[in-house]
Amino acid sequence: MQEKILIVDDDKVVRDVCREALISEEYEITTSENGQDAYEVARQQYFNLVISDIRMPKMGGLELLGNLKKLNPDLTVIMFSGLGDVNSAVEAMKHGAYDYLAKPLVLEELKATVRLALQQTKLKEENTRIRKEMQGTLSTLNTTPPAIPLLNNLPLDMFKEFLNLGKMRTYDTQEIILHKGTPDKNLYIVFEGEITVWQDGSKLFKLGKFDCYGEMNIFKPHIVIHDLIAEEPSKVMAIRRDALIDFFNNKDEKYFKHIILNTLNSQFAKTRKISNRVIFLERKMRS
């Protein structure tokens, strides 16, 4: 799907030049000749990016910026400024503009700035999507907390607080999550999909929904000895060790003891998986 850009300038020549330059980059372009018209268009359509002049009739660029941010605080906006509008451009940056470009425009600079701005838009949209998914996940905890073995015996409110420490990320099939030999201080919890754990080219075991990796990082950070690879599209939460330590420093000691016991049980289960894998491979070699 083409990314949609709204160009706002009272100078038709500027609008047309920008339009042609950005159409060549395969964006979908809409133009408006003043801030008032642009605002009405933006109320009716979604745009990935708005590029606006500062000085225009009916509604200037700074007023338009403020109104657009009320419609969508995450909207990315680039401002045009003439040589005498530098102070206004700086003011626009303070009020949420992504960047400003000085006139006369350099088209290659315009294209490069637009590319960077759209990358930021994608990151914002991805972060918003992940936050909503996390809110949906956490809201279900009010009645049915997920069966995460590592968090057995934690009270519901502490369970939710624990998960709020993490950041969720989506991995594509065959995407590498962790490389052997890299320092790591995170705890990983699989929420969707399937992760395989490899060592020296051999598959050791799989991690499924609500399985964890890196539990021992809670007690001591270490060098990763495995490769973790997504076998299918997967959602994995990562929680930093320092956040975990701060979390348990403010809790009753008995809950940390629960985590210790759950970690030991988890490590035992993984050792058993590895042993079963070794037995399977030995039998396969003999047959």
From TrEMBL:
Keywords from the UniProt entry: Phosphoprotein, Transcription, Transcription regulation, Two-component regulatory system
InterPro entries from the UniProt entry: Bact_response_regulator, CheY-like_superfamily, cNMP-bd_dom, cNMP-bd_dom_sf, RmlC-like_jellyroll, Sig_transdc_resp-reg_receiver
Keyword Phosphoprotein: yes
Gene3D superfamilies xref list: 3.40.50.2300, Jelly Rolls (2.60.120.10)
Domain Cyclic nucleotide-binding: 150-244
Pfam families reported in the protein's UniProt record: cNMP_binding, Response_reg
Biological classification of the source: Bacteria, Pseudomonadati, Bacteria division LCP-89
Entries under CDD domains matching the protein: CAP_ED
The keyword Ribonucleoprotein is annotated on this UniProt entry: no
GO process annotations (BP): phosphorelay signal transduction system
Highest taxon listed in the record's lineage: Bacteria
Record's protein name: Response regulator
